[in-house]
Amino acid sequence: MRECVIIDGVRSANSRAHIEKGWFRAIRPDEILTKVYDGLFARNPTVKPEDIEAVFVGCANITGMQNDIGRISWLAGGFPESVPSNTLTMQCPSGMAAIEHAARAIVCGEGDTYLASGVEDMQKVFMAMHMDFPPRLLERYNIMDIPMGSTAEKVAELWKITRDDMENMAFWSHKKADAATKAGKFKKEIIPIEGLKDDGTPFMVDTDQWIRGDISREQMAGMKPGFKPDGLLTAATSSPLTIGAAAVILMERSKADKLGLSYHLKYEGGAMAGCDPTIMGIGPIPAVKRLLDRKGMKVSDIDLWEFNEAFASQTLACVRDLGIAQNAPFENVNVWGGALALGHPLGESGCRLVVTMNNIMKTDYPKAKYAVASLCGAFGNANAIMFSKV
Ligand SMILES: CC(C)(COP(=O)(O)OP(=O)(O)OC[C@H]1O[C@@H](n2cnc3c(N)ncnc32)[C@H](O)[C@@H]1OP(=O)(O)O)[C@@H](O)C(=O)NCCC(=O)NCCS
């Protein structure tokens, strides 16, 4: 069986998707994505763009500036016309699906070298832009139960997650992300890109915009609910609207060896799973179970976890239901913080989780064997992916 390894992975910093305050408010998502590619190729000179078999690009909202962003950005960025690109959506797990498509192509022998990426600009292509639901879907589901915030509230209610536990999780997400940033951990993965300060001054953005080192439990406790008057979730316990891009180079192992490239993680498999769209946040539960069952493995076999923190309620429901952890700070989950602090640019996040996991396994978990990343997505699509140390 052929093996697929990660040669390298990088990302942009995550900017707020805010028309006045977002650091990336004036740069298009295709430009952010290709600047990430430029950074990735620059630090991996052995891998030439023309050697890429195909580019898989995950993006949740493939419309407007993000319409076929895979191909359009590749051409706009001056990359070879001979390299095809497949823009794909699975909502939030899109960037992870991109990695899986590339990894599977390598494992089954369709090609040796792929680029997989994820991108989203939630300011210029806002959530559900141009969405037109079929009437039959609305006969099946109450439209009021479909928006992401409603699903997060429903999960909090059904899994009995308290506001206090969610704010505790947000607190630790920011504290871990702040500690990792201050320790320079993200320097290895962030390609600096020019952005704008609040006053319009240009500067190189090399840190994530949303992280609050001074996060306060008291302040969070005073925040108004974000989605319904008597709701439990606030802007602090929901991932913020974000802009960002991430990319990885994947290669067939023996080819990497022939080229003398170093790597430390290989693809073990992925599992997509579906669930009730009105509680979409629990999707990682069936996705992780399906992945572990197929591998004949248990939760306790996994050394490191990355769960996308779309909402504190759904992450807590997942880690509790799977028997991984009860409350933050989680020991081996999101050790450099999660999306509540780092941000969640929808289609980017599945790829970003793998980029970060690749780094954590190298620097903080050198003796660990298995790592799993998972995330939920709108309308009940979820994904989980496993890598192992080689
Ligand atoms: C929750 C949500 C509605 C809030 O949106 P919003 O009202 O535009 O709020 P913002 O994110 O800009 O934050 C509002 C304010 O709260 C503040 N805030 C957020 N978290 C905070 C915290 N932990 N402590 C203190 N203040 C905080 C922000 O800084 C901001 O104030 P500022 O503009 O002065 O800086 C929005 O972030 C959202 O929809 N998130 C979910 C996105 C989603 O569905 N993703 C897909 C998941 S599957």
Give a description of the structure.
This protein has 390 residues and is of the alpha/beta class. 33% of the residues lie in helices and 20% in strands. The chain has a domain at 4-125 and 240-385: Peroxisomal Thiolase, Chain A, domain 1. The longest helix is centred in the middle third of the chain and has 20 residues, at 163-182. Helix 2 (69-76) links the parallel strand 3 and strand 4 (85-88). The mean pLDDT is 98. It is built from twelve helices and twelve strands. The protein binds coenzyme A. Residues 92, 148-149, 170, 212, 215, 219-220, 226, 235-236, 238-241, 310, 344, 378 line the site of coenzyme A (COA).
Low-confidence runs: none
Name every ligand kind in the structure: coenzyme A
| Shape verdict | globular
User: What gap, in angstroms, lies between the N and C termini?
Assistant: 15 Å
The secondary-structure element order is EEHEHEHEHHHEEHEHEHEHHHEE
Strand content: 15-25%
The CATH superfamily of one domain is Thiolase/Chalcone synthase
Helix and strand composition category: alpha/beta
Main sheet makeup: 6 strands, mixed
According to CATH, what is the class of one domain?
Alpha Beta
Helix run count: 12
CATH architectural name of one domain? 3-Layer(aba) Sandwich
| Overall helicity | 25-40%
Could you say what the CATH topology of one domain is called?
A: Peroxisomal Thiolase, Chain A, domain 1
User: What is the arithmetic mean of pLDDT?
Assistant: 98
Give me the count of strands.
12
- Taking Cα atoms only, what radius of gyration do you get, to the nearest Å? 19 Å
